[in-house]
């Protein structure tokens, strides 16, 4: 069964194969958060990179790269390779138009008591998609998809407002020191290198730097260097002229040019290929660059902020990162503390994120139950703020109770350490309830699948649901 629900599209699309003369047109018959199917007589070879370009009346032109997958007589499947937030936002807007066609005066059949927020296009899109993959996805795939949605849907225009109102700053001394440095160095032209573990919120801090900089009115262009296919990296960073290589069907601006008069944020800079490190260093030294296929020098007008979860000094010693580029980027180095060093901020941050996510989705914010709060405090949060945000994003969507419960967070119960209490029978029943709650969430209330997993009969499952007063999730 397909893990991601697809939406009918029937949109004209053009495509070209990188490093090949082949190009063509077709119809984008359906599209999902991960890919789609193109109906066309021109079919590229499987597992090749293609440039895609299609338009929508209200959104405009969407252009990105994708990898071609299996083919048949009608056309071929594609898997998107979104490498920047602008492309993600364009996809979000396009899918929203496809997912928000319900009659706004009609109540949702999923929950007739739900408020009209379910009829908002973005909420409709998310819920339709989640209804499909929450039931059928494995835990790892589910968490990956949550992270994808969380990044694509919630880093948008709101983040360009006052960071003090849209970002949680906290009260821990380590975070206060980070914000002190940002306010000092953001107004300068010095490059900034943000260092921290995965999920500590480096992009959030880069946006804060942009807000306090002299380029705050310009664009903020975030790029994940680790997600850029190496064969496309130079074209995406510097841009190219029409006809500069086979497959270059039109002139294309690169990230450096798109960020003019603003900020270019290069996340995971430690993953940038060595050949591109040399070219980036030259741009930083000479403050000019060229599109591929052009001799015209374009002045560098953007401020560059970089981030990494690697020890770049160690990468320099290993020869995987250039020492001269490291010194050039390390104008100001700021270390972002992991969440485990901000324990006082944990619950206030969780409550802030619930409020923010609920507001973005047009839902009434629910409180965290005492059990959920204890679970949040006891969890190690190795994925830091990102993991916490993903868990709360999931909880806001799947929660069917007045409060957010521990099982809504999707965190393994083994990480929930609480003092044992009660008789042996009470402890056993409590454990059985936790297992059944997790199964209900994992299988979307499918009693047959729950019975198969637990090795019991369907009537036994129903009896346990009744015994523990649990609700069957809505499909």
From TrEMBL:
Keyword entries, A-Z: ATP-binding, Nucleotide-binding, Transcription, Transcription regulation
Region annotated Disordered, chain positions: 99-119
Tell me which residues make up the Sigma-54 factor interaction domain.
168-397
Gene Ontology biological-process annotations: regulation of DNA-templated transcription
On the tree of life, the source organism's domain of life is Bacteria
Q: Which GO terms describe its molecular function?
A: ATP binding; cyclic-di-GMP binding; sequence-specific DNA binding
Name the SMART domains for this protein: AAA
What's the protein called, per UniProt? Answer: Fis family transcriptional regulator
What lineage, starting at the top, does this entry show? Bacteria, Pseudomonadati, Nitrospirota, Nitrospiria, Nitrospirales
